Amino acid sequence: MKKIISTTSAPTPIGPYSQAVLTGNTLYASGQIALHPETGILVLDDIKTETKQVMENIKAVLKAANMTFDNVIKSSIFISDMNNFGEINAVYGSYFNEVNAPARETVEVSRLPKDVNVEISIIAAK
Fold this sequence. Notes:
Elements: E1 2-5, E2 20-23, E3 26-32, H1 47-64, E4 72-79, H2 85-93, E5 103-108, E6 118-125
Parallel strand pairs: 4-5
Antiparallel strand pairs: 1-2, 2-3, 3-6, 4-6
Helix pairs in contact: 1-2
GO molecular function, one term: deaminase activity
Pfam family, one: Ribonuc_L-PSP
Family: Belongs to the RutC family.
């Protein structure tokens, strides 16, 4: 049975999808972009600030499911310019303990929703 996870501490979905779905002990979270949850405005000051907002949005979804970044088993990072990888990776890495960091792929794509520079989705388990 699936349970829809929703929180006002992360951006409201901009399409026909849920912030996350919990099935059994596994959480499947939709991709997050740098939308500020309270204002709905994109946070695009620089790539580090943008990535931090993405990670804070993920953190809020995890919290709504009673999980933390320690529960994340898989991440998918989509970026519009691989030249930003180092800065994105530095911010992303600050949310994880390297000893038990999740599996991950990073893919450069031609375009992301709302023309953002980074989108990250996760899978987590209890």
